[in-house]
Specification:
Mean pLDDT: 90
Number of domains: 1
Number of strands: 9
Radius of gyration: 17 Å
Oligomer: single chain
Structural class: alpha/beta
Largest sheet: 9 strands, mixed
Strand content: 15-25%
Shape: globular
Length: 287
């Protein structure tokens, strides 16, 4: 098999459950070699983010360019970009055609609800990076913020569809909104623990098609890094030449398997990580 390499441009999670560490583990689980460009150092564990130290955008660009100049990439994903200036630096690489199969996970908050991007970040995503994105992977709250809607407005598949299509209008080739309608959730509509619904529902949109991926939500305390793993699995699947629809479906199955397996593990005293060691076979069939 040809060597497949994917680049992740993201923040470092000192607890190892999310961020660039989650991306590396997910890439390897899909037999894709991981290259990295770190955007920020986070001081965090399973209970909360204690501090964030963004890197100079020039250093982020230099890391990515060093990889690009030497290694053929099959796909690229972004995670936490931390500042509008870093978003702009990454967008410049994308504009120059250097980031193939670009998957953008617009991380705006931590799983415990703490902001992970400086003021102006939402506008930078909208104006600079989304127009060069192959697949955008916001959760419900991120989709609301990126489209200027109150999160509680996304209370039905129809409203999620409208928000997703608004993101397509910004230039994304495909959008998958994760998490299901707010109406299926608890009264806590913030990102993070305590937000629960009966089903895990993701809506994939392109210009003329839509697909709903729905499955019973897996109850576990160990869900730190779920969004990172999902977008990284999609990226790895794209690197492995899988079409977008199949890439999303198989990524969902990977995350579900990792969540299911995590229930028997215990790392840390808060929201523990997924089980990245899981072995899984997709049951999505022919999508």
């Amino acid at each position: 098999m040809d060597d497949r390499v994917a680049l992740t441009i993201a923040g470092s999670d000192s607890s190892g459950g999310a961020g660039i560490q989650a991306d590396i583990k997910t890439f390897f689980a899909h037999r894709v070699f991981a290259a990295t460009a770190i955007t920020a150092i986070t001081v965090q564990n399973t209970t909360r983010v204690h501090d964030i130290v963004p890197l100079d955008p020039r250093v982020v660009t230099a890391q990515a360019t060093a990889v690009i100049d030497d290694i053929e990439l099959s796909a690229v994903k972004t995670g936490m970009l931390a500042t509008p200036e870093i978003v702009s630096a990454v967008a410049d690489l994308a504009r120059r055609g250097l980031l193939p199969n670009l998957v953008v996970d617009p991380i705006l908050f931590s799983s415990t609800g703490q902001p992970l991007i400086a003021d102006g970040g939402v506008q930078a995503y909208r104006e600079l990076l989304i127009p060069f994105t192959k697949l955008l992977t916001p959760n419900i709250v991120e989709a609301a913020l990126l489209t200027g809607r109150p999160p509680e407005q996304l209370s039905s598949i129809e409203e999620i569809d409208k928000a997703g299509r608004a993101l397509l209008e910004l230039g994304a080739e495909h959008v998958v909104v994760t998490g299901g309608p707010i109406s299926n959730r608890s009264t806590n509509t913030s990102i993070g623990p305590g937000v629960a619904s009966k089903d895990s529902m993701d809506l994939l949109l392109s210009r003329d098609t839509s697909t709903v991926f729905s499955a019973t939500r897996i109850q576990t305390l160990n869900d730190h890094g779920t969004g990172c793993a999902f977008s990284a699995a999609i990226t790895a699947n794209l690197a492995n030449a899988m079409p977008v629809k199949e890439a999303v479906g198989h990524a969902k199955e990977f995350v579900r398997a990792a969540l299911r397996s995590s229930r028997s593990r215990r790392i840390g005293s808060g929201r523990g990580p997924l089980d990245y060691f899981v072995e899984f076979e997709s049951d999505m069939g022919n999508l």
